[in-house]
Amino acid sequence: xxxxxxxxxxxxxxxxxxxxxxxxxxxxxxxxxxxxxxxxxxxxxxxxxxxxxxxxxxxxxxxxxxxxxxxxxxxxxxxxxxxxxxxxxxxxxxxxxxxxxxxxxxxxxxxxxxxxxxxxxxxxxxxxxxxxxxxxxxxxxxxxxxxxxxxxxxxxxxxxxxxxxxxxxxxxxxxxxxxxxxxxxxxxxxxxxxxxxxxxxxxxxxxxxxxxxxxxxxxxxxxxxxxxxxxxxxxxxxxxxxxxxxxxxxxxxxxxxxxxxxxxxxxxxxxxxxxxxxxxxxxxxxxxxxxxxxxxxxxxxxxxxxxxxxxxxxxxxxxxxxxxxxxxxxxxxxxxxxxxxxxxxxxxxxxxxxxxxxxxxxxxxxxxxxxxxxxxxxxxxxxxxxxxxxxxxxxxxxxxxxxxxxxxxxxxxxxxxxxxxxxxxxxxxxxxxxxxxxxxxxxxxxxxxxxxxxxxxxxxxxxxxxxxxxxxxxxxxxxxxxxxxxxxxxxxxxxxxxxxxxxxx
Length: 505
What we know:
About 35% of the residues lie in helices and about 20% in strands. By secondary structure, the protein is of the alpha/beta class. It folds into 3 domains: about 60 residues, no CATH class; about 140 residues, Glutaredoxin (3-Layer(aba) Sandwich); about 240 residues, Rossmann fold. It has an 8-stranded mixed β-sheet with strand order 8-7-9-10-21-20-18-15, covered by helices on one side. Helix 2 packs antiparallel against helix 15. The longest helix is centred in the N-terminal third of the chain and has 33 residues. It is elongated and about 95 Å long.
């Protein structure tokens, strides 16, 4: 027998042996199992891409999940809306080549996909303007040539549309040396959820309710920036009106007088009073928020008196541990009027105030309390010495942190004056807490303007969890290669090596 025949015989014997047959079966089973794993990985990836809500968010803060108010609002949306991201998805997920903070673009992309998945009326599209230069031509309300526009997203519904810039959708650290010296953006959070929902509200809400912020009496516009932002997010048209030189708009439903440091002039007070009366047609509202300092305001006081209220000349305090947050002057309140809590998402969550004035009710038929502490709270007059303060702390009969006064015409048409005693309760760090300050304020505005529950009160809390890490599109691709390709391949090689070693032992 030749050597060639001997070798062929050995090979045939090898494949016919029991060990080889068992090993081959084991190898086939291993290969089949790996194929199933790879197939499941691919199918899962495709399903998550097609249905983003199937994706699990493993972060403790739910950084990749939509807020409940967002989901509730999108669930009831019945108008078609298209969200255009004005770059390719790959470029968007990579962070638009930013210096730092690209992980927030990955997060933003996931949130956008989940918005579209929440309601079939919402469509998400990526438009790469470099390959679609004519796309912008029909949107002539937007200044596409402005060097500082940075338009990133366009939201369209019917014939109405609005745009969002990078600064609308992301928070960047303008104080960083990279920005100061080199102009590089360092992103620290995404606000895209709030910005997009605001945009959807803007293009789907028919006639927007107008709000005028009164200026001309020493108001600090920066102090009410957060309040303006909150109103705009809930589809209110907000402008500033200087009562010394201008008149309040005829179509405005609300005027806001926020923490004036001097009294209104007689002429300004007269303008405001006539605007509220509206030639007897009423239907207008003033929200007054006094400054938390001693300021003589006889003209404002006279207007408040017509609406059955007076603002105390001092600060409210609370000694009841049930209400105190951090000190005697920072405390939560009870709701005191069901009309203005009916549409709150959760009326069990209180409103918190700090350094509030007490809103006294002069005429119970005209004015009603809104936010109160009925026992264990009182008022310390401005300028009190420590001994006087100690005495006042013993006179804690109760205070009102907010109240509403209503005047009606002969045909029962109404105008309202709402007084909130604390300007601090509307600063950003109070509006963005888990308390109900944002929700309650918007609910009051919706109620007095008969908007019902149109507002959704998307808070300004930023999705800036440290758990986001540094995930970018490139890293996501690498992870995919590792789990879909490398790990199964390595497992297959290990199985093959074990099989060969067992055969040669």
